[in-house]
Amino acid sequence: xxxxxxxxxxxxxxxxxxxxxxxxxxxxxxxDEGCEIVHIDEMGLRQLAYPINRRNTGVYYCIxxxxxxxxxxxRMELSFRxxxxxxxxxxxxxxxxxxxxxxxxxxxxxxxxxKKEEKKDDRRDRRDSxxxxxxxxxxxxxxxxxxxATPAKEAKEEAPAPVEEIVAPVAENEAPKTEETxxxxx
Length: 186
Known about the structure:
25% strand; elongated; alpha+beta; 7 helices; four-stranded antiparallel β-sheet; 186 residues
């Protein structure tokens, strides 16, 4: 049997009850037409890629269903276009790979579904990996007192050497000396 999914964005200005009533309207429409609802996924409030009707966010919903025939799709798309509560929608026919992917996602084999304990262990591992392992931890020892550097001392220590001291002046007619010319082999 064919399986479709419709993803639509509900206007975020609506209250949560009104948004759920919108979803219920379309699930009732599908059930009245004899469709089997496989899964309803409320993805929640998300940022839009670009503004739609001066809105930057929207409430996303996804409904997977199996219709008896494909004639329902046209009527459903028409009702989505007429409904002011719906900002955008997309109806897609799923192939066997899409159906398998959605099943695996619902069963927790794909995606960011982790138990709370696993998340805590991951955080501990990341914290432990950041700690330096070369230096042993020192407890209850006073830190050595360092001499405070004054701005004048720092300026003297950090000042670069003059350029004349680093590079020896080269005469205009004289070629720069290389290792070969120093030995007298040239």
